[in-house]
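quick one before i forget lol
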Amino acid sequence: MTWNTTCHCGAVSVRLAKAPDEVAECNCSLCFSHGILWAYYSPKDVAIDGATRTYNRADRANPNSDLHFCATCGCATHWSATAGLIERMGGEVDMMGVNMRLFAPERLSGLRLVFPDGRGWSGEGAWDYARDAEVMR
């Protein structure tokens, strides 16, 4: 089964090599304000086509991710590791996030939904969870 989608206007397409293992609803100020649901992948398993712009959060001295969004319609499409994070990790970060809100709700039905506590996360190490996982409906 293929996992392909586009932003609202169709200018940016996203192709996933496989279904997500789970979907994360982070409660940090950035994710919460955008209403994003993330699935985490190796960049090798994701193809993004189309022009995106980036936003780098201003509330952290050393942000870990660049939020990408469609240059035309503004939909958040994915995040990628910042150059600073790549440097801090020794030259490679094998993780990115894809905004699963771009997919139809029925595609997400039955997936495990987790709730990372991004508001309480310092930006380093593992995060705690704000509440127990659920199954998406």
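fyi The CA atoms of residues 86 and 93 lie 6 Å apart.
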